[in-house]
Design brief:
- 38% of the residues lie in helices and 14% in strands.
- With 113 residues, it is of the alpha+beta class.
- The protein folds into two domains: 48 residues; 34 residues.
- Strands 3-4-5 form a three-stranded antiparallel sheet, with no helix packed on it. Strands 1-2 form a two-stranded antiparallel ribbon.
- Helix 1 packs antiparallel against helix 2.
- The longest helix has 23 residues.
- It is rod-shaped and about 90 Å long.
- It starts with a helix and ends in a 7-residue tail after the last strand.
Length: 113
């Protein structure tokens, strides 16, 4: 968005310059040119002082029905022990990244029937 604002400010400043250069003794053209220069300056100033967007962190809490037992997780590739710090939820799917071998895979729940 900043690039678009700077581009618009450059175009407005260009037209301001054209009005001032092409005034040919007419005061109204000089006034319009100065106003366009000022508008370009205001656009640049407001773009630079605007606060930056903060990064948004989403926390997903899962409410499980019934009794849940914690299983010991091991890496499929190297057999290393995995902890909850190695689990990440992306787009609703559970992914694990092994800190030992670096392999990453999605956890798939086996059907219970």
């Amino acid at each position: 968005m900043e690039i678009v604002t700077y581009l618009i400010a450059a175009i407005v400043a260009f037209f301001g310059f054209m009005f001032v250069v092409g005034a040919q003794g007419q005061l109204i053209r000089v006034v319009v040119g100065v106003i366009l220069f000022a508008a370009a300056g205001v656009l640049i100033y407001l773009t630079r002082v605007r606060p930056k967007k903060e990064e948004i962190t989403h926390v997903q809490k899962i409410d499980l029905s019934g009794d849940v037992q914690l299983e010991h997780l091991q890496c499929r590739a190297c057999g290393g022990a995995l902890s909850r710090d190695n689990i990440e939820v992306k787009a609703g799917a559970i992914f694990i990244e092994c800190p030992y071998c670096g392999s990453s895979y999605q956890i798939e729940e086996a059907p219970k029937w």
